Amino acid sequence: MRIRVAIVGGSIAGLTLAASLDPQRFDVSLHEERPERRDAGSALAIQPPAWAVLDSLGVGQAARNRAHRITSAALCDATGRHLLRPPGLALHLLLRPALVDLLDSAVPDAVTRRHERVGDPAGLRADLVVGADGVRSVVRRAAFGATLVPRVTPWFALRGLLDGPPPVAEEYWGRGDLAGITPAPEGLTYWFTSHVSDLGAAPHGDDAWRSSSAVDVAEALDEARRLFGARPDRAPAVLAALERARPEDTLAQRILEAPQPRRLVRGRAVLVGDAAHAMTPNLGRGACEAMVDAHVLAREVSRPGVDRASLGRALARYEALRLPPALALPAASRTLMRMALQRRLQPARDAALGAAGALVEAVAPSPRR
């Protein structure tokens, strides 16, 4: 008899899992409240473990054909002065809609798709309920504790795509804000900013996270333009991107931090992706870790001999493999975010980064002529 799997959340983690489970062994249902939101425009860094997952699903080469490779980038201060240039950079960017489309194409036709909001996961008829429903995960709250709700931070993030590539890939750390631009696939520019803002829900209160997405994008863009344009020595690339940005091509979100569960499995419920380890975007690892979570979970429950009776042991192996990164990576990302948005120690931070950059350049091997 097939194992019944209900996947709550139909974005990157949920699609990867649905695509990875053999319909001969699993009866899979994929529950997504708003499928149209999966293709929100942004660019994602695809790292080697994620490429392995895409290859296993048979869409790796198609993804490579649509990715943009970046071999040079710089970390700068707010004015554009280079502080640190990572050596040996080999970064691949893929547009989020392209990644979602490729994962969706790999999902077997036998998977039942339900366009619905899951209010109570306990009502799902399944042997395994997978929370792939992001930072606001209803599965996490229902199975792991109602107190595990996101915390609203003071930070606000904007990101979007523009026609035409920029000449460089750079990230700019200011005093309490950051911004970045980079070439993206299809000849586009991907840009992003983060700053302290009162837009949307106030950063306090137990239920502030519920309304944190209700933000006027045009208002958020105007605020960012005022903030980043307040200094005449701001990096021109940041100001140019903000001036060209259009609300319809821009995502505006308050950054949420989810409390980290000490477990990934409880009973028949299991967490993957942002539901398990939501992190700020500074490491560029969220999408990759979501795909790896789903791949490892599918591998463990698909081992020979795993059935309904032994499913718990398979889930325990998944948790043992994925809990360490689920604990470490969000902490590292938060630390990097706080460093990037430092106010009081900004001069010391820039001096330290500049010294590190000079050291890297001094010891890096010279390019062959």
- CA radius of gyration is 21 Å
Structural class comes to alpha/beta
Overall average residue pLDDT: 89
Query: Per CATH, what is the topology?
Result: FAD/NAD(P)-binding domain
Element-level helix/strand string:
EHEEHHEEEEHEEHEEEEHHEEEHHHH
Uncertain residue segments = none
Dominant shape: globular
The CATH architecture is 3-Layer(bba) Sandwich
Indicate the CATH class. Answer: Alpha Beta
Major sheet: arrangement of strands: 6-5-11-12-13-10-14
Main β sheet profile: 7 strands, mixed
Task: Please characterize this protein's 3D structure.
Helix content is 36%, strand content 23%. The chain is an alpha/beta fold and 369 residues long. It has a single domain, classed as 3-Layer(bba) Sandwich (FAD/NAD(P)-binding domain), CATH 3.50.50.60. A hairpin with a 4-residue loop joins strand 5 and strand 6. The model has no long low-confidence stretch (mean pLDDT 89).
